[in-house]
Amino acid sequence: MNAHWSSKKSNFFRKKIKLLTKYLFFESQGIPDKVDIVSRLKTYGYSISGVETDDGYKALVRAFQLHFRQKNYDGIMDAETAAILYALLEKYFPGK
User: What is the mean pLDDT of residues 17-32?
Assistant: First the structure.
């Protein structure tokens, strides 16, 4: 096995472990509140217009899920969706 392949494999597993850690944290500690989730979705680039209503918030979460978690896009913020969002922000917007 060459070093490049080994490095790619190592990075893959490191990312999966980070995501799993975030998922387990949200499962045990609870999902962040709506204000925090909306703020983070805005940071990632999603429009937050209409999130004042339950339907608007659900549509925003569903849009995120359709892009990043197609197996379940019910619009309900859960531990897996939150973990994906936080992992993406950590990777692409560190320090925010």
Answer: 94
Contact 28, 5 (CB under 8 A): no
Look-up of token digits 């925090």: 36
| Number of domains into which the chain is organized | 1
Q: How many CB atoms lie within 10 A of CB 56?
A: 14
Q: Retrieve residue 72's tokens.
A: 């379940």
Structural domain containing residue 52: 3-92
What SS3 state is found at 33? coil
CATH (domain of 74): 1.10.101.10
pTM of the model: 0.86
CA–CA separation, 59 vs 37, rounded Å?
13
